[in-house]
Specification:
Layout: E1 2-5, E2 11-16, H1 22-35, H2 47-59, E3 64-69, E4 72-81, E5 91-98, H3 107-121, E6 126-132, H4 136-144, E7 148-159, E8 162-172
Parallel strand pairs: 5-6
Antiparallel strand pairs: 1-2, 2-3, 3-4, 4-5, 6-8, 7-8
Helix pairs in contact: 1-2
Bound molecules: coenzyme A.
């Protein structure tokens, strides 16, 4: 577990999620899903669906991390396989969502940095983020965390009655070919 001082002097913890966190994780996820194009899905999920998703991640030995402040969950982060075929096994795709009242306070950065450390421990080579092209806060967030833009797919998403463009960003967990080692 990591303990981090936040901007207001309080302490935030980053740890593996536990089953009791999933009502709060589900509420954070559903708020993002309902109010933004950050997730290309418009059907709110349930706590039991999210627990099933978590158990699936655990079976793959992949972490689901939460940030907590005074034992309230203020954000969560996870990764899954980028694609299911064996040749993609060193590549993961991440997800990070912060409670609407706690954005812009460094929680996402702390979670993503802990998530990258876990991916490194698992021997992963690179991490992908797929971000809606209009989600400026998220694009800046990933770039600020060291991700670089790697691709742009037009109109692959559909939500709120219109097509949406997806930006792929990529982070090198271990050096890539051609990079100084
Ligand atoms: C995107 C998100 C994960 C970022 O987490 P966060 O805790 O708010 O971000 P941080 O406070 O760690 O900020 C890190 C950097 O992100 C950028 N950023 C964060 N919020 C921003 C905003 N509202 N507008 C522009 N840039 C923003 C800034 O560059 C910031 O660094 P700086 O303050 O030094 O300039 C969070 O805002 C969130 O959950 N948003 C809604 C859901 C979502 O979009 N998830 C990502 C799906 S791909």
């Amino acid at each position: 577990m990591n303990e981090i001082q936040n901007a207001s002097g309080g302490s935030m913890q980053i740890r593996d999620a536990a089953e009791a966190d999933f009502d709060q994780i589900t509420a954070i996820y559903n708020e993002v899903l309902t109010n933004s194009t950050a997730v290309y899905n418009d059907r709110p999920t349930t706590t039991s669906d999210r627990i099933a998703w978590w158990k699936d991640r655990l079976e793959q030995v992949y972490p689901v991390l939460v940030a907590t402040d005074r034992s309230r969950v203020v954000g969560f982060a996870a990764f899954g396989n980028y694609r299911s075929w064996a040749g993609y096994r060193f590549t993961v795709e991440c997800t990070v969502h912060i409670h609407s009242g706690r954005r812009g306070q460094g929680v996402g950065t702390a979670l993503l940095s802990a998530l990258i450390a876990r991916a490194k421990t698992l021997g992963k080579h690179t991490m992908i983020a797929g971000v809606d092209s209009e989600n400026i806060a998220s694009l800046r967030f990933f770039e600020r965390c060291g991700f670089e833009r790697a691709g742009y797919l037009r109109e692959v998403g559909y939500k709120f009655g219109r097509y949406l463009d997806l930006v792929f960003l990529q982070y090198w967990i271990t050096p890539h070919a051609g990079e100084a080692r």
